[in-house]
């Protein structure tokens, strides 16, 4: 008992040390990479025809005139106290800039992941149980298309379908209409409308969320469907499944209790990885649909050479990915008893 507790603590300590090392590595790489890219944040902030004296004052204001090693050490010192600094473009704390847009991206990513789960898993199961049929071929085509086509192409294609198809109730810009008089008490517009059963607000938020969520869900949906299909097809050929069929176990029980339960570990892992990648996909999706989230903030920060915001966004992405990875790894034994320690 004590040995098991000790081993568990050692394992958690290794995970924590690895996470801290990864965050430090990401912070270091992005710090020096940003400053190696041509361009001056002070000149970008001052404008094209700004007075050189003004540019120099801006550089001194943000310590850009100091030697690079000195800037790096100051950056690490601030990180140690959980200070991401201030945005060069807005002079506001980076944490505030991120916090104001976090809900928009969380709602978009959460909806996209829900679509991937609710559509990808059933599609994979249907294709896996009907191998060689037209449905299997169609599911394969959907999976290949979803993985292969870039996100921004998918987004523009959906906008084109909306415009040419004359679908007036769908919107393709922002989270809400500019003339909207709806009042929200939380930054989660769609979730609040759904929980309060407000039909007017729900219709408005859903109309703005539909196209971006479908665009962002394309890749994870395709990956989950493909993995589920291959897993189901492989399990169905196992001897114990054939024996279970011979014993007369109902097909539905056989599928969900014996087949999908064995596929669930791989699907759970894929969902974890795809959830981590959603933040990267949100950059292109939010840019295409003018969605006011973290992706748009990251794009604007890169174009404006806003070093603190870009650095904060990269650290946030790494932190989210690490948290998802640790959570998936911790839940594996609960899904598959074979992975539990003896």
The biggest sheet amounts to: none
Order of helices and strands: HHHHHHHHHHHHH
CATH architecture of the domain at 102-287: Orthogonal Bundle
The stretches of 5 or more residues where confidence is low (pLDDT under 50) are none
Number of helices: 13
Per CATH, the superfamily of the domain at 102-287 is MetI-like
Q: Compute the separation of the termini in Å.
A: 11 Å
How many individual β-strands? 0
Helix fraction?
over 70%
How confident is the prediction overall: mean pLDDT? 84
In terms of DSSP E residues, the strand content is: under 5%
- Which of globular, elongated, flat, extended, rod-shaped describes the shape? globular
Radius of gyration, rounded? 24 Å
Instruction: Give the CATH level 1 class of the domain at 102-287.
Output: Mainly Alpha
Q: Could you give the topology of this structure?
A:
Blueprint: H1 2-36, H2 41-46, H3 52-61, H4 68-80, H5 94-129, H6 134-148, H7 151-164, H8 189-196, H9 199-236, H10 239-246, H11 251-289, H12 294-303, H13 307-335
Helix pairs in contact: 1-13, 5-6, 5-9, 5-11, 5-13, 6-9, 7-9, 7-11, 8-9, 9-11, 11-12, 11-13, 12-13
């Amino acid at each position: 008992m004590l040995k098991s507790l000790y081993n568990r603590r050692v394992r958690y300590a290794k995970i924590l040390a690895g996470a801290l090392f990864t965050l430090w590595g990401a912070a270091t790489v992005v710090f020096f990479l940003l400053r190696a890219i041509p361009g001056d944040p002070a000149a970008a902030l001052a404008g094209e025809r700004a007075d050189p004296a003004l540019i120099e004052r801006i550089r001194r204001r943000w310590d850009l005139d100091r030697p690079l090693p000195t800037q790096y050490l100051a950056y690490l010192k601030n990180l140690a106290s959980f200070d991401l600094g201030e945005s060069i473009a807005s002079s506001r704390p980076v944490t505030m800039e991120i916090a104001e847009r976090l809900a928009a991206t969380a709602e978009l990513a959460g909806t996209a992941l829900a679509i991937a789960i609710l559509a990808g898993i059933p599609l994979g199961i249907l294709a896996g149980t009907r191998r060689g049929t037209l449905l299997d071929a169609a599911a394969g085509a959907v999976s290949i298309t979803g993985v292969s086509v870039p996100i921004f192409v998918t987004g523009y294609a959906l906008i084109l379908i909306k415009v040419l198809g004359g679908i007036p109730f769908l919107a393709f810009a922002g989270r809400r209409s500019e003339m909207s008089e709806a009042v929200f008490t939380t930054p989660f517009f769609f979730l609040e409308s759904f929980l309060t059963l407000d039909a007017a607000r729900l219709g408005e938020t859903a109309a703005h969320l539909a196209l971006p969520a479908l665009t962002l869900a394309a890749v994870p949906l395709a990956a989950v469907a493909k993995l589920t299909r291959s897993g189901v097809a492989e399990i169905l050929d196992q001897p114990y499944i054939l024996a279970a069929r011979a014993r007369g176990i109902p097909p539905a029980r056989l599928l969900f209790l014996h087949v999908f339960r064995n596929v669930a570990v791989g699907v759970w892992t894929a969902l974890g990885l795809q959830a981590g990648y959603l933040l990267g996909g949100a950059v292109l999706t939010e840019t295409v649909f003018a969605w006011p989230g973290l992706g748009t903030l990251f794009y604007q920060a890169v174009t404006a050479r806003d070093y603190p915001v870009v650095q904060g966004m990269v650290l946030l992405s790494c932190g989210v990915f690490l948290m998802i990875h640790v959570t998936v790894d911790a839940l594996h034994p609960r899904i598959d008893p074979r992975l539990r320690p003896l």
